[in-house]
Specification:
Blueprint lengths: L1 H16 L7 H21 L1 E6 L1 E5 L1 H4 L5 H6 L2 H21 L4 H32 L4 H12 L2 H12 L1 H4 L5 H16 L10 H18 L6 H21 L22 H16 L1 H7 L3 H12 L1 H19 L16 H30 L8 H5 L9 H4 L4
Antiparallel strand pairs: 1-2
Helix pairs in contact: 1-15, 2-5, 2-14, 2-15, 2-16, 5-11, 5-13, 6-7, 6-8, 6-16, 6-17, 10-11, 11-13, 12-13, 16-17
């Protein structure tokens, strides 16, 4: 144990030494918290049961509605879009200053997002085909593929907003917020509104935190007052919409519920996101102070190096553990049983380290697909230099995705 601590301390010191002096570490910390929040949230509220013979998806939120506040902690996508808008706008401004063409800038950013996706799609195409040929029920395969592919909508929206950064970077957040409000009034206030109308909010809803992030890059939140107003106003608006507006208390989708706050985003989800963004902006300074500790910064740096790998493979890790558990002669509590009691919650908490270990295996196998896209291509002078250059350390490979 002492040797392990010594090795970790040495790694942390190397990461610290190779981190640029002017790096805003709070941005990396917010991104890491957002990614890990989504992962833990999915592991806690996603249940694969064998109640109907095959594997089917349900959620403890569908059986124990008082657990809705859990979704307030782990639905952190607004923070990710906030950071994305901040980094995207700042990176575009820097690229323009250096004379980098837009197509080069956007190509580099999108390749960092989609290179890891190819590995997921390739593996699951083969896996799904093998399961169908092996006689696995179509419903079970559909359930598994839905869990794997559903997070990709987030990447598609994020990629679209990233590509549109030159158009939306200076857009006031009130504009997309007004669109979300108008769509919801039409959806829920007029029974004859077409169902597809709500999908406008997939773009408009996430554009709100993205434009807040762009405003942050321009110095709009240099003082704490605007962030405090976002937090307070978001909390009050969310409470009013849930208590008197008929919106669900859960900020994630619940199987069987008439309305989902997330699919597509509703005004309640966007208001909640405003509160989250305000809180994130308020804790920047404490996070920056915490990141001065080499061991804390090393953890955040390593998560950022593999942020997309962690996001894309965490559901596969959950399903792999669930599938292996089927080899047991009985349904394992917290894994295959219906999530309808506190006992299920206690059992699921015990499974979290197992999910994390399975994710670690996925990370070891597939992280190269993400990190290869982050390595800068050597220039001709570097390739022909006679003197070997020192290897780039982990901290210098971290990019703001």
């Amino acid at each position: 144990m002492a040797e392990l601590r010594a090795r970790w301390s040495a790694l942390a010191d190397r990461v610290e030494a190779r981190t640029p002096v002017g790096r805003d570490r709070s941005v990396d910390a917010l991104r890491a918290l957002a990614i890990l929040g989504v992962v833990l949230g999915h592991w806690l509220v996603t249940a694969l049961t064998t109640a109907d013979g095959g594997l089917s998806t349900t959620s403890p939120l569908a059986h124990m509605s008082p657990l809705a506040p859990v979704s307030w902690v782990f639905q952190t996508l607004s923070v990710f879009f906030l950071v994305g808008g901040h980094v995207g706008a700042r990176g575009l401004a820097s690229a323009r200053e250096r004379g980098v063409p837009y197509r080069v800038w956007v190509g580099q950013r999108l390749s960092r997002l989609f290179r890891p996706v190819a590995a997921v799609l390739g593996l699951w195409s083969v896996t799904a085909g093998g399961m169908l040929l092996g006689g696995v029920e179509l419903g079970t395969v559909h359930t598994l593929l839905t869990l794997v592919l559903s997070p990709l909508w987030f990447l598609l929206v994020f990629a679209a907003l990233t590509a549109a950064t030159p158009l939306v970077a200076r857009l006031h957040p009130v504009a997309p917020l007004a669109v979300v409000a108008g769509v919801d009034v039409w959806r829920f206030g007029f029974g004859g509104a077409p169902g597809w109308l709500g999908w406008i909010n997939v773009a408009a809803g996430w554009l709100v935190p993205y434009t807040l992030g762009a405003a942050w890059s321009r110095g709009a939140f240099a003082r704490r007052t605007p962030a405090a107003l976002l937090l307070g106003g978001g909390v009050l608006a969310t409470a009013a919409l849930v208590l008197w507006g008929g919106y669900p208390a859960s900020m994630v989708g619940v199987p069987g519920a008439a309305i989902s706050n997330l699919n597509p985003p509703t005004l309640a989800a966007v208001a909640f996101g405003l509160a989250q963004c305000g809180l994130a902006l308020l804790v920047r300074e404490p996070l920056a102070r915490a990141m001065r500790r080499p061991t804390a910064w090393a953890k955040v740096a390593l998560v950022n190096l593999s942020a997309m790998t962690i996001f894309l493979w965490h559901q596969t890790a959950l399903m792999a553990v669930t599938a292996l558990g089927l080899l047991a002669p009985f349904d394992l509590p917290g894994l295959h049983t219906v999530p309808d009691s506190p006992r299920w919650i206690a059992a699921r908490l015990l499974w979290l380290p197992v999910f994390a270990a399975a994710l670690g295996v996925c990370w070891a196998a597939f992280r190269t697909y993400e990190q290869a896209s982050r390595r800068p291509k050597p220039s001709r002078s570097t390739r022909t230099a006679a003197v070997p250059r020192p290897r780039t350390g982990p901290a210098k490979e971290i990019n703001h995705v």
